[in-house]
Amino acid sequence: MEFAVEHRAVRDLTVVKISGEIDVFTSPRLREMLLDIIDNGGLHLVVDLGEVTFLDSTGLGVLVGIYHRLRARDGSMSFMGVNERVRRVFHVTQLTKIFVLHRDLEEALAAHESDNASSETPSSAS
């Protein structure tokens, strides 16, 4: 499978679909594409990894770096459609402690809307 990155807006989220292998050879291109999305206003990303066949430490490093860049801009990044092989990589590296993995887009949208609703609700000071 050829490496490819596509993105589209869904409400106030940017859905980024990655296909193929994310490795030492494709990671620089992935990083560049994700930075371009962020620079063009995509601050809330849902990354679809359903068609990712391989993910190495270089790819993980790119995803962690993008996550930190988004957090610094009050953005967010979560994942959906993660297959068992990639899910295992996230668990082994303990990245499930910082990354949220959703089953599908509907779950990701609901979680994002819930987060926005709770952050917009004024808290009462005691």
Count of DSSP strands:
5
| Low-confidence runs | none
Helix content: 40-55%
Structural class: alpha/beta
Main sheet strand line-up: 1-2-3-4-5
**Helical segment count:** 4
Overview of the structural elements:
With 126 residues, the chain is of the alpha/beta class. Helices cover 43% and strands 29% of the residues. It contains four helices and five strands, in the order E-E-H-E-H-E-H-E-H. It has helices spanning 27-39, 57-72, 84-92, 105-120, and strands at 4-10, 13-22, 44-55, 76-80, 101-102. It has a five-stranded mixed β-sheet with strand order 1-2-3-4-5, with helices on both faces. Strand 4, helix 3 and strand 5 form a beta-alpha-beta unit. The longest helix has 16 residues, at 57-72. The radius of gyration is 15 Å and the shape is globular. The protein starts with a strand and ends in a 6-residue tail after the last helix.
List its traits.
globular; 126 residues
Secondary structure layout plus pairing:
Elements: E1 4-10, E2 13-22, H1 27-39, E3 44-55, H2 57-72, E4 76-80, H3 84-92, E5 101-102, H4 105-120
Parallel strand pairs: 2-3, 3-4, 4-5
Antiparallel strand pairs: 1-2
What's a quick, concise take on this entry?
The chain is α/β, with parallel strands linked by helices and 126 residues long. It is 43% helix and 29% strand.
